[in-house]
Design brief:
Strand content: 15-25%
Number of helices: 7
Oligomer: single chain
Radius of gyration: 15 Å
Order of helices and strands: EHEHHEHEHEEEHEEH
Largest sheet: 7 strands, mixed
Number of strands: 9
Strand order of the largest sheet: 3-2-4-1-5-8-9
């Protein structure tokens, strides 16, 4: 499988991703899967310029699933998305992966499930997170590449959640 790493980070490609994660992963290309970014031409262009030296493709979830089903990914790929729901849709749409890395999920008005300042979810995102876990996906929480990954359920329990 050419998808080497799947990360959920609500900021998508930002300084830490471009300077640290990409070197850590060693990917040849970045797939940015975001319904929000794919429908915003300005954000799409910014994302394509955010990681100099890398090819960045931006797709909405449904388009990515269709492409994935028709054409195997050959380049070593870092896949980043801004939504737990997008990852669940990809999994249910046949995208093969067994592990997901969580980065920052910051507070927003609609994120009422708060495990920590950078681990916040809408009720739907929280449901989808637990659905992924129930499907056997290994999910780690790791803000920076130099941090040790922590199983997401351990992190949620440390924060007093279930």
């Amino acid at each position: 499988m050419a998808i080497k790493w799947i990360r959920i980070d609500d900021r998508l490609i930002h300084g830490q991703v471009a300077s640290s994660w990409l070197r850590y992963i060693g990917a040849e290309q970045i797939l940015c899967i975001s319904d929000r970014a794919a429908t915003n031409p300005v954000q799409e262009q910014v994302l394509k310029m955010a990681a100099p030296g890398y090819i960045v493709h931006v797709f909405d979830v449904e388009k990515f699933i269709k492409i994935y089903q028709k054409k195997p990914i050959k380049k070593t790929t870092f896949l980043i998305t801004d939504s737990t729901s997008s990852v669940l849709k990809m999994k249910n749409g046949g995208v093969e992966f067994s592990e997901v890395n969580y980065g920052g999920m910051r507070t927003r008005d609609d994120r009422t499930v708060i495990y920590d300042y950078d681990l916040c979810f809408t009720p739907e995102e929280d449901h989808d997170l637990h659905e992924l876990i129930d499907q056997g996906v290994k999910i780690n929480y790791q803000i920076a590449a130099y941090d040790s990954p922590v199983p997401i359920l351990d992190r949620i329990k440390q924060a007093g959640g279930k």
